C-alpha cells in the first residue's frame, strides 16, 4: 500500500505542469525512498526524470515497490482542484486499478476525494549513468526562461557556448540572429544574489539544441530560482531544477548535429 501526504498542493501542481505537456502517460515508481518518474517524450527526443523523496511527505508509507501508470494530464486536472495551500494525500492499494486523491483545506473545512483509473503502461526504464560534465552553468531560472522565449522568435535552435568568462546563448534563423551573454559572477536580479551566474568549467563547450524543447523545459521555472545546465561534447544536455530539499526535475536533450538552424 502507498500513502503519501504532501503539505502543499502547489508543489505537486507545479511539478505536473512542468512535465505533462512533454510526457502524457507515465509510470510513477514508488518505493521506500519516495516517488520517481522517468519517461521519454513521444518523439523520443527528450528524457524527463522526476524524484520526490519520502521526506517531502508526512506521513509517507510504501509497503512494497509499486508502479502506478497514469495519465499525467488527468492527474494534473484533479490536483488543480486544490488550493495552493491544501494538503494532498495519494493512496493506492496493492493490485488495485485506481489511485485515490484527497484534497484537504488547511482549516479542515473542506475535504475533496477523487479517484483516477490506473493504466498498464509498458515503458522502458533507462539507466542514466553518473556523468562528469565538461561544463556546468548555474543561473537564474527566470533569465533562462526569458532567453529561450526571446530567441525562439528567431530560430528553432539555440547554441550554448561556455567559457571561463561566462555563457553565451545565440540563435541564427531566416529572419535574423541574436545572442545573450551572461558574465561569470554577474547577477541579472539585483535583489537575489543567489541567482548569480556561475560557470564551472573543465573545458569550453559549444553545442546546439532544439529551442522548442528548451522552452518546454522552462515550464519548471516556478519550482526553483536557479537552473543548472550541464554539458559535455559527447553527452546530452542536462537541465536540472532542484525542488527545495525534497527532489528534482531533470531533463536530458541530445544536441543537434550539423546545421544549427
TrEMBL record:
Pfam families: PCNA_C, PCNA_N. Belongs to the PCNA family. This protein is an auxiliary protein of DNA polymerase delta and is involved in the control of eukaryotic DNA replication by increasing the polymerase's processibility during elongation of the leading strand. Involved in DNA repair. This protein is an auxiliary protein of DNA polymerase delta and is involved in the control of eukaryotic DNA replication by increasing the polymerase's processivity during elongation of the leading strand. GO terms for cellular component: PCNA complex. This is DNA sliding clamp PCNA. GO terms for biological process: leading strand elongation; mismatch repair; regulation of DNA replication; translesion synthesis. It is found in: Nucleus. Residues 127-256 form the Proliferating cell nuclear antigen PCNA C-terminal domain. Gene3D superfamilies: DNA Polymerase III, subunit A, domain 2. Coiled coil: none annotated. Residues 1-124 form the Proliferating cell nuclear antigen PCNA N-terminal domain. GO terms for molecular function: DNA binding; DNA polymerase processivity factor activity. InterPro entries: DNA_clamp_sf (IPR046938), Pr_cel_nuc_antig (IPR000730), Pr_cel_nuc_antig_C (IPR022649), Pr_cel_nuc_antig_CS (IPR022659), Pr_cel_nuc_antig_N (IPR022648). Keywords: DNA replication, DNA-binding, Nucleus. Its main location: nucleus.
Amino acid at each position: 500500500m502507498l500513502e503519501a501526504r504532501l503539505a502543499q498542493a502547489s508543489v505537486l501542481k507545479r511539478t505536473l505542469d512542468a512535465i505533462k505537456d512533454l510526457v502524457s502517460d507515465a509510470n510513477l515508481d514508488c518505493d521506500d525512498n519516495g516517488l520517481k518518474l522517468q519517461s521519454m517524450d513521444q518523439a523520443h527526443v527528450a528524457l524527463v526524470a522526476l524524484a520526490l523523496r519520502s521526506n517531502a511527505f508526512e506521513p509517507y508509507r510504501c509497503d512494497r515497490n509499486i508502479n502506478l501508470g497514469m495519465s499525467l494530464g488527468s492527474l494534473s486536472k484533479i490536483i488543480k482542484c486544490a488550493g495552493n495551500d491544501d494538503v494532498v494525500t495519494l493512496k493506492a492499494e496493492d493490485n488495485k486499478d485506481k489511485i485515490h486523491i484527497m484534497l484537504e483545506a488547511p482549516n479542515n473545512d473542506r475535504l475533496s476525494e477523487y479517484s483516477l483509473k490506473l493504466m498498464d503502461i509498458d515503458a522502458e526504464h533507462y539507466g542514466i549513468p553518473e556523468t562528469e560534465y565538461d561544463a556546468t552553468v548555474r543561473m537564474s531560472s527566470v533569465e533562462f526562461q526569458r532567453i529561450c522565449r526571446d530567441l525562439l522568435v528567431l530560430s528553432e535552435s539555440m547554441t550554448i557556448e561556455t567559457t571561463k568568462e561566462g555563457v553565451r546563448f545565440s540563435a541564427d534563423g531566416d529572419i535574423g540572429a541574436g545572442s545573450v551573454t551572461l558574465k561569470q559572477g554577474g547577477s541579472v536580479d539585483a535583489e537575489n544574489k543567489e541567482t548569480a551566474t556561475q560557470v564551472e568549467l573543465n573545458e569550453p563547450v559549444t553545442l546546439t539544441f532544439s529551442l522548442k524543447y528548451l522552452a518546454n523545459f522552462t515550464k519548471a521555472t516556478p519550482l526553483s530560482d536557479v537552473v543548472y545546465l550541464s554539458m559535455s561534447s559527447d553527452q546530452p544536455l542536462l537541465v536540472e531544477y532542484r525542488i527545495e530539499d525534497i527532489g528534482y526535475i531533470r531533463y536530458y536533450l541530445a544536441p543537434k548535429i550539423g546545421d544549427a538552424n
